[in-house]
UniProtKB/TrEMBL annotation:
Family per record: Belongs to the short-chain dehydrogenases/reductases (SDR) family.
Presence of keyword ATP-binding: no
Gene Ontology MF annotations: oxidoreductase activity
Pfam families, A to Z: adh_short
Keywords associated with the record: NADP, Oxidoreductase
Superkingdom, taxonomy of origin: Eukaryota
The species this protein was found in: Zea mays (Maize)
This protein's name: (+)-neomenthol dehydrogenase
Keyword flag Methyltransferase: no
Position of the signal peptide: none
């Protein structure tokens, strides 16, 4: 069966953004083991090259630096792929802008897998006692943890701007740069990963928050909710 998979996918080329750790790295591993040629990308060149080296037994993995927030970086990646492969079959978009404290990520390890590579928020923590907060989270389910983290977080403008530049503008710019190469494939595919923060069941909370904001006029409040839906 492994041989069959290799024959089926062996001539395909995939790009994985944020491929140096977590879900991204495992996707690179799985694609490579199926015979796909994988371009593993990461913003940090040293970490990205190190991640690629951990897949050293997979000769069909190459590394290329990519900062999804920099259009010129996306253009360089597109030029590299065009010169080396002439086309692109699969683009997996996994931006990483996740600024919750590391101890929170560790504590939520069992559920963080769903949001590991999605840039979901631009927050700054105001937790004074990390260990006490860790214990507070211990008896909570996922939704309770999210609420608790939100209570201990702020959303500075700079962080929100970084979040939007990465999660929306960044992934859009990368897709735009690579789209001509995807169109050169007879079966090009784009996969963008989301997170728990994108669940529709969270919209009620967003709606209530917007209604509590006295500075948001009704027509704009409705626009935000409609767009979110």
């Amino acid at each position: 069966m492994e041989g069959d998979k290799g024959n089926r996918y062996g001539k395909q080329v995939a790009v994985v953004t944020g491929g140096n750790r977590g879900i991204g790295l495992e996707i690179c591993r799985q694609l490579a083991s199926s015979g796909v040629t994988v371009v593993l990308t990461a913003r940090d060149a040293e970490r990205g090259a190190g991640a690629a080296s951990t897949l050293g037994q997979q000769p069909n993995v190459v590394f290329h630096q990519l900062d999804v927030g920099d259009p010129s970086s996306a253009a360089r990646l597109a030029g590299f792929i065009e010169e080396k492969f002439g086309r692109l079959d699969i683009l997996i978009g996994m931006p990483w802008t996740f600024d919750l404290p590391f101890f929170v990520l560790q504590h939520m390890r069992s559920s963080i897998i769903h949001i590991n590579n999605a840039g979901i928020t631009g927050t700054a923590s105001n937790v004074d006692d990390p260990e006490a907060f860790r214990l507070e989270l211990a008896g909570m389910d996922l939704m309770q943890r999210i609420e608790a983290i939100n209570r201990h977080s702020t959303e500075p403008y700079e962080q929100a701007e970084k979040c939007l530049n990465t999660n929306y503008h960044g992934i859009k710019a990368v897709t735009k740069a690579l789209l001509p190469l995807l169109q050169s494939s007879s079966h090009g595919r784009i996969v963008n990963l989301s997170s728990y923060y994108g669940l529709l069941r969270l919209l009620d909370r967003v709606f209530n928050t917007l209604h509590e904001n006295p500075y948001l006029v009704d027509n704009w409040r409705g626009t935000v909710i409609t767009t979110s839906s």
